[in-house]
Amino acid sequence: MMILGKLWVYLSLACVFVLALLNAFVVRVLFLFWPSLAKKLVLKVGEKSTMTQNPKFNFEDWGMTFGSFTFVKTIFGHLWLSLGDEAFVGGEAPDSQELVKDYSDAADFLVVYIAEAHSTDGWAFTNNMDIKQHQNLGDRLSAAQVLVDLQPRCPVVVDDMSNVATSKYGALPERLYVLQAGKVVYKGSIGPWGYYPSEVRSFLEKMK
Questions:
Q1: Which residue has the higher pLDDT, 178 or 24?
Q2: Are strands 156-158 and 111-113 parallel, antiparallel or unpaired?
Q3: Is the pTM of this model over 0.85?
Q4: Residue 125, Cβ neighbours under 10 Å: how many?
Q5: pLDDT band at 134 (very low <50, low <70, confident <90, very high)
Q6: What is d(CA 185, CA 113) in angstroms, rounded to the nearest whole number?
Q7: How far apart are CA 54 and CA 83, in angstroms?
Q8: CB-based contacts of 206: which residues, under 8 Å, 6+ apart?
Q9: Could you please report the per-residue DSSP string of the chain?
Q10: Residue 96 has what pLDDT?
């Protein structure tokens, strides 16, 4: 199971990277020759990733970053770490707001804060929080405190600077899991497009 799982990880990540490169090329060309069409397509992507639902951001804050060199570099970095993904449904779990309220009797919730997906010195969005790439554990703990201050209703821990949890769970930029008795029983797709708390809600409903 582990060998087949790893092969699937490598194949799927390679496909994602090729699609990201193709996306970057197409978007750059469209912005150059047909900017209105490019904006329409990027907004469609934004709908799937919920970016268009965030009142803090206008299209100008994030839309023009799609297809940039930093976009490709960030995607590559995320996928490179995800090559260490060892968390497969039915297999052993690697060591390493509303949903919480409604299902606290069925599950214990934990947030693992990992590398910053949109650091101000990386693939940055305008008007986003000023959080740089973490250079040490102190940086990561300070950034995680921003999340703690939002009172997420469950404990918040941080991955270490070797990003072991991020790698073994293929977590960048975000991902949802349900573990039971040391086993992975639910594995969400890579976010933001595959980040569906509603799926976790349905899964936990069956566990009640």
A1: 178
A2: parallel
A3: no
A4: 19
A5: very high
A6: 21
A7: 30
A8: none
A9: -HHHHHHHHHHHHHHHHHHHHHHHHHHHHHHHH-HHHHHHHHHHHHHHTTGGG-TT--HHHHGGGTTSHHHHHHHHHHHHHHTT----TTSBPP---HHHHHHTTT----EEE-S-TT-TTSS--TTS---PPP-SHHHHHHHHHHHHTT--SS-EEE--TT-HHHHHTT-SS---EEEETTEEEEEPPSTTTT--HHHHHHHHHHH-
A10: 42
Q: What is the mean pLDDT of residues 57-82?
A: 80
Using a 10 angstrom Cβ sphere, with 0-12 exposed, 13-18 middle and 19 or more buried, the burial of residue 37 is exposed
Please give the C-alpha separations between residue 200 and each of 10, 18, 178, 206, in angstroms, as whole numbers: 25, 29, 8, 10
> What Rg, from alpha-carbon coordinates, does the chain have?
18
